[in-house]
Here is the input.
Amino acid sequence: MNFSVKSLLCILFVFLSTFIIAQELPPIVKYPSSVYNAGNQNWMISQDSNQFLLFANNEGLLEFNGSNWSLYPSPNETIIRSVKVVGDKIYTGCYMEFGYWTREANNRLKYHSLSNKIKTKIIDDEQFWNILNYEQWVIFQSLNQIYIYDSKTSNFTIITPKNNILKAFQTNNSIYFQVANEGLYEVENGKSKLISNSSVVLSNKIVELFSNEDGLLLQTQSKGFFKYINGVFSSFITEVDAQIASSSVYSSQQLSDKGFAIGTVSNGIFILSADGKLKYHITQNKGLSNNTALSLFEDIDKNLWIGLDNGINCINLQSPVRSYSDDTGILGTVYTSLLYKNKLYIGTNQGLFFKSFNSEESFQFVKGTKGQVWSIFENNGTLFCGHDSGTFIIDSDNAQLIFSASGTWKFEKVLGRNDLLLQGNYYGISVLEKVNNQWRFRNKVSGFDYSSKYFEITDTNEVYVSHEYKGVFRFKLNNNFTKASDFFAYNTPKKGKNACLKKFNNSIFYANKKGIFKLDNSSKKFIKDTILSAVFQNDEFTSGKLIVDKSNKLWLFSKNYIHYFTLSKLSNQLKQNTIPIPASLTNSMLGYENITQLTNSIYLIGTTDGYYTININDLSFKNYSVSIASITINKLDEKLINCSVKSIGEFAHDENNIVFNYTVPEYNKYINAEYQYILEGLQEEWTEWSAKTSANFKNLPPGKYVFKVRAKIANSKPENIAIYSFEILKPWYATNLALILYCVLGVLLAIYIHKTYKRYYKNKEQKLIEENNLLLEIAALESEQQLMKLKNEQLSNDVDNKNKELAVSTMSLIKKNELLSLIKEDLKKTSEDSNKSIKSVITTINKNITEEDTWNVFKEAFDNADNDFLKKVKQAHSSLTPNDLRLCAYLRLNLSSKEIAPLLNISVRSVEIKRYRLRKKMDLSHEQGLVEYILAF
Here is the structure.
């Protein structure tokens, strides 16, 4: 069972591989509804004098200026079915409404109704499906009536047939319309005239009507074309009549080359030559977004616009590029290609395919080559294929494997040895040899085992190899090409992702992110080439892939361009040519870019889903004028406001955030316009060229500015410079009037300050005088205080002296009493029978040591010295006895208990008891000292 499934899959792959339809088509630019942010369906297309495109869309009037889309909702929020640009007005028709749009100063469109003038004549539920223009008249066609509007007089003429109008048509000289079951009419003098009621027009719906030299040409819905000459119908045979019969034609357009574009309901579009030959049949599986073409329009640059049932497409019919896209995935990513014996071979990640050159036949798969094909190489009539499985020799649709030890990257010829080829493999370099007219593997070069995706050999058998992860190597091959020696690894230039090494004009070049380096044959060092390296400046590097074609052109790929260099015929200088096709559009795999010369001017470039061809002789770029599409300003954190793009701008100081949108109405898929701008007044130099279509300036200071923008395509010179002048006004407080006011206020303020200062200094002077007087008074008072202090000190000294005298006197009394007491005691010890005179002495002693006398003398002296201390103590403690007061006085003199005892004529123990009792009477706490308390009075 497994075997059967595998067999079926293999048979299916081979069948599909040999059935790949290979039609090379012009580029198709796709605009899905998610890009233009409007409805899916687009019913009619027109173009204005600015070359902006207008679309009748389900959501309203859709405008595209080449850079930005704008949607204008219909006036009554219904589907816009028709659009036609006439002069500077854009006429549209929708449900129960028609009118025109005009462009205001800010480049926005404003609607003006025409149907309001004849509201009563419009039939209920009427929709306007078509708009035509003939001289001064604009014709609005619904399914019920035809409204003829005279743009000069603003008058209407209405034609109302009995049956439904299928469609109206315009030719060079007339207006026609078809009425169901009646025939074909012509409008003459504002009235309908029957031209034909032949069965051809009665049984067929006319999709479009064209005029030719002999008469009319009718495009029908399913029966193809009919000629109408002198009242007689005849078929106009084309190559697609059978396909049209089953496809149902919905739209048709005669092209500027007299050919035809036919849009169908279910089978895409057909593009025919003037004689009915099929040029292209483009469907959804060939690149269209949808198979239903609701509208067709050829713009001024001969691009064909298609309003689809789901999106908008633009086909660049005049583009020098033709693309082949493989939506099936069978062909895969194209790595290499070659034109050999009038057959185009394509090597992809799926294998090797071929077809006859310049034919629309299918690509055929070369059996046995399933897998990645890295290179195709022709040498003396033999075609080699470098494959993931090894090396094949290709003969038409046959492949012969001659080397299978490892995958093969590329091939190089050996100078002077037509019987040898070097091939770069996954694990080094090997040699192929031609023996008996048959190529075979001879040997692997020993001593070098690194992958050799890119290598070159010199006349002296030196081999240079670029390894993406290890850098650049050099080694020497022996004469028999069997062994590598003198191995050398370069430190510079550095290794790099997508780096490449290639021989061009007998010199070896190495390219990486840092630039392109040329090998100096004398020093064997790589030196940076400034001319070639300029290609990768400004962050343009994507891949270092270098390709040399048959005519000795060096090709390089960068982020926004494809470059090729040729040698000047009069010098060794390189001449640079640029093709403005960015890497994002080429869709090539980075590091595996490939380009092959098919003819003198046609080149094939491989992509991840096929390839495209380009005719470099037809790369002529029209000069387009750049215009400022819109200018918006806003205050900080507020909504954007559209401004006039025609008059000089004048904005408030806080409206200093400004955005410029500019555009070139160019719609070629593979050609991008680049812009450069300068804001004079802020910038001194033009910016770098960029594809960005807007410039944003924030927080501009007040002043006058001039914004200038210019555009170029490829190497063309700018056609014009779009200029816009504006001024950011100063805030009211920084205007000239405000400055004058500030000056006046400044003068008044200066006068005021002068007077204030004058008054201030005068007051200060007076104050100083007063302060000086006060200081003098204070000095006098201080002098008086000093005198008083001196007097007080003198009095204090007197008191101290008196206290000292009192203390001395007291001590003297104490000493006297002590002496008398001693004498008394000694006398008492004598016999009682002693002399009476001794008793008399004792009596005298007792009188002299009488306490009362001593106390009275002491009290009088003490009161004089201590300001009535005893009275104060008595007042504070009324319970004190005279003895207590005496004790207080002695304590006041800071006498000890031992010193007090003789004065009181008691023992020391008695003095302690008295002190204790005195504390009790004074009610002193345990912590409070008696002496300290007394001294405090």
